[in-house]
């Protein structure tokens, strides 16, 4: 008999849920609200918010004068110099930065004031990393995203403060830290990967021991979703990454008896439920 098994932990994290609630609250107040970039890495939920009236713009496209316009800082945060400039131009900022991201930003400031060279581990073009850069001394900062880049990192100073993108795969961070520790003295104030990311990683690894295939629900642009997909493959389990039920080809999984489902931290419950419902209909 074919079975469907959900990961023990999946779907919305605290930071994403908080950002969405803040956006909804601002929209309920009948204000015109502009999110500085896509609020979260989930096209379906962003579209739902757009239908409620939320607009999406990049900082570079905003008019010079804000005239009190409400801007929403997304969960990934925003460069403090950009924030200062927007306020001076007359914009009203509502901060939906994830509290865990804020803690990382404060740690960067702490390290900078302590005279430590900062190494951020993450994707250089990711919104969270772009915001983090603004809290560091740009002349004493490196951003790396792979073991290969860690191998060739060449810094004269021996004491480094390191932290990572909150959605980085924990095993990747560990491997990079191991490489760097052979040449540098590493300093960390605390674990910078979001606990939700770690919990979902552990859950997908546990799930891989119970199933024959894993369906990962989420946006392909989401770092933590991609991490879940890669972890499933690393466990030797066939995996499919789908954004929603309509993107799932049930024929692909017809040969498997035990089907697992997990989802990224930006995926609402209704999207997960729709995928599971489709699977149930097909497997009946």
UniProtKB/TrEMBL annotation:
Active site: 128
Entry keyword set: 4Fe-4S, Iron, Iron-sulfur, Isoprene biosynthesis, Metal-binding, Oxidoreductase
GO biological process: dimethylallyl diphosphate biosynthetic process; isopentenyl diphosphate biosynthetic process, methylerythritol 4-phosphate pathway; terpenoid biosynthetic process
GO molecular function annotations of the record: 4 iron, 4 sulfur cluster binding; 4-hydroxy-3-methylbut-2-enyl diphosphate reductase activity; metal ion binding
Binding site for dimethylallyl diphosphate: 41, 76, 126, 222, 224, 266
Family indicated by similarity: Belongs to the IspH family.
Name of the protein in question: 4-hydroxy-3-methylbut-2-enyl diphosphate reductase
Taxonomic classification: Bacteria, Pseudomonadati, Spirochaetota, Spirochaetia, Spirochaetales
Protein's gene: ispH
């Amino acid at each position: 008999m074919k079975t469907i098994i959900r990961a023990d932990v999946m779907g919305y994290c605290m930071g994403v849920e908080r950002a969405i609630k803040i956006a909804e609250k601002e929209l309920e107040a009948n204000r015109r609200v502009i999110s500085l970039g896509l609020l979260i890495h989930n096209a379906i939920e962003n579209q739902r918010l757009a239908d409620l009236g939320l607009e999406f713009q990049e900082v570079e496209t905003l008019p010079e004068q804000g005239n009190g316009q409400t801007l929403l800082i997304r969960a990934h945060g925003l460069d403090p110099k950009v924030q200062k400039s927007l306020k001076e131009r007359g914009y009203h900022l509502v901060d939906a930065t994830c509290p865990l991201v804020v803690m990382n930003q404060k740690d960067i400031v702490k390290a900078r004031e302590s005279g430590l060279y900062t190494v951020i581990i993450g994707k250089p073009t990711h919104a969270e990393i772009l915001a983090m850069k603004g809290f560091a001394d740009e002349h004493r900062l490196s951003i790396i995203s792979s073991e290969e880049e860690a191998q060739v990192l060449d810094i004269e100073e021996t004491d480094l403060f390191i932290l990572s993108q909150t959605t980085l795969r924990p095993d990747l961070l560990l491997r990079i830290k191991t490489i760097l520790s052979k040449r540098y003295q590493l300093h960390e104030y605390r674990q910078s990967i979001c606990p939700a990311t770690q919990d979902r990683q552990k859950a997908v690894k546990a799930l891989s021991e119970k199933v024959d295939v894993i369906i990962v629900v989420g946006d392909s642009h989401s770092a933590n979703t991609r991490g879940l997909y890669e972890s499933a493959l690393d466990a030797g389990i066939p995996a499919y990454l789908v954004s929603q039920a309509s993107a799932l080809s049930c024929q692909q999984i017809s040969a498997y008896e035990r089907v697992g489902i997990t989802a990224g931290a930006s995926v609402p419950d209704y999207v997960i439920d729709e995928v599971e419902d489709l699977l149930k209909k097909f497997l009946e």
